[in-house]
Amino acid sequence: MQTLDLPWTEKYRPKKLSEVIGQSLIVDRLKAFVEKGNFPSMIFAGSAGVGKTTCAIAMANELYGQDIHSAFKELNASDARGIDVIRGEVKEFAKTISVAHVPIKIIFLDEADSLTADAQHALRRTMEKFASETRFVLSANYAAKIIEPIQSRCVVFRFKPLTEENMKKYIHRIVEGENLEIDEKATAALVDVGDGDLRKITNILQSAAMQNTKLTESHIYDIAARAKPKEISSMLKYAIEGDFEKARVELYNLLLRHGLGAEDIISQCYKEVPNLNMDERMKLNIMSDLGEYDFRIVEGANERIQLEAMLAHLALLKSGGAKSF
Asked: What is the Cα–Cα distance from 203 to 107, expressed in whole angstroms?
């Protein structure tokens, strides 16, 4: 039977802490923990795709080596977020004796901010009871959703957003490893659609490479189902200039050609407004409008009506006929 290649998200995941991109300060501290063979429980906080899970697994690889399966347990808290998993699976592993050369075990709870309040209180008690032989590493996009008693028992590592240079370095690593060709515009497009998430960048790259080994800007935006920045800017400029009909045509092109949802369009508008060549006060008004219409859509208002209302409101701003929210 033919074996399938690993997804690139796993193939290019760093196996050692030294290979992690863009988090040098955190990596240095984790390396010190590995050298000492002892460390506190930790919370890894930060946005998606910046290296939280990678750091936890790379640290465990360096700490345990071949014994990793007996001393390291990974659970995704968003899949099993109730109190039963804490009282059952987590507690059972926590109280076992490690057979690894390092006597401390690690339980890694990915997306720990998804745990219910009852589950978090049960986890706190488990952390207290088995503190001598088990350390917990909790990964969270929003550390504030983890209760204070757990936060006070952990060292919090805040992962910073990745820079454009970090993302380009990672992109070229994959391009070289897979013998792909990519131009500067396509690289910039990957950085734009990835928005700091290396996992998203990797998936888009792999999907694009399945169609063509020579990647262009158009390939990237088509695979990502995103509009090009100039298409968003064009729609906004028509609206701001008071030409509602042309702005409306551009909007329908985005909806039909790219299949974008209302939240996607508003999110891309939010990214493009600072780049528009106009008065700063006008930019402030537009940003305020985007927040209002985004809220309406999230609350369940008709997407198409709200998007057209947003363009109409922007068109009225120039003439002074629009009222502020």
From this structure: 27
Considering the domain delimited by 8-158, tell me its CATH architecture: 3-Layer(aba) Sandwich (3.40)
Chain centre to alpha carbon of residue 259: 22
3-class secondary-structure state, position 140: strand
DSSP letter for 189, please.
Answer: H
CA dihedral in degrees (83, 85, 89, 92; nearest 10)?
0
Task: Render each residue's pLDDT in the chain as its tens digit; 325 residues.
Answer: 333 467 888 888 888 899 898 899 999 999 999 998 888 999 999 988 899 999 999 999 999 888 888 889 888 766 655 666 677 777 878 877 777 788 888 989 888 888 888 888 888 888 888 888 889 999 999 888 999 999 999 999 999 988 889 999 999 999 998 898 898 899 999 998 888 888 899 999 998 888 888 888 888 888 888 888 899 999 999 999 989 999 999 999 888 877 888 998 999 999 999 988 888 888 888 999 999 999 999 999 999 999 999 999 998 887 665 565 5
| Cβ within 8 Å of residue 71, ≥6 positions away | 60, 63, 64, 98, 99, 100, 102, 104, 105, 106
Q: Are the CB atoms for 100 and 70 separated by under 8 Å?
A: yes
Please answer whether residues 155 and 40 qualify as being in contact, where contact means their C-beta atoms are separated by less than 8 angstroms.
Answer: yes
Measured CA to CA, the distance from residue 199 to residue 12 in angstroms comes to 10
The letter for the amino acid at 192 is D
What is the distance between the alpha carbons of residues 248 and 242, in angstroms, rounded to a whole number? 11
Q: What is the CATH T-level fold of the domain 164-224, as seen in this structure?
A: Helicase, Ruva Protein; domain 3 (1.10.8)
Amino acid at 148: E
123 and 115 Cβ atoms separated by less than 8 Å: yes
CATH class entry, domain 229-319: mainly alpha
CB 257 within 8 A of CB 250: no
The DSSP secondary structure of 27-58, one letter per residue, reads: HHHHHHHHHHT----EEEE-STTSSHHHHHHH
Please tell me the distance from the alpha carbon of residue 161 to that of residue 22, in angstroms, as a whole number: 8
* Closest residue by Cα to residue 108 from 160, 42, 158, 156: 42
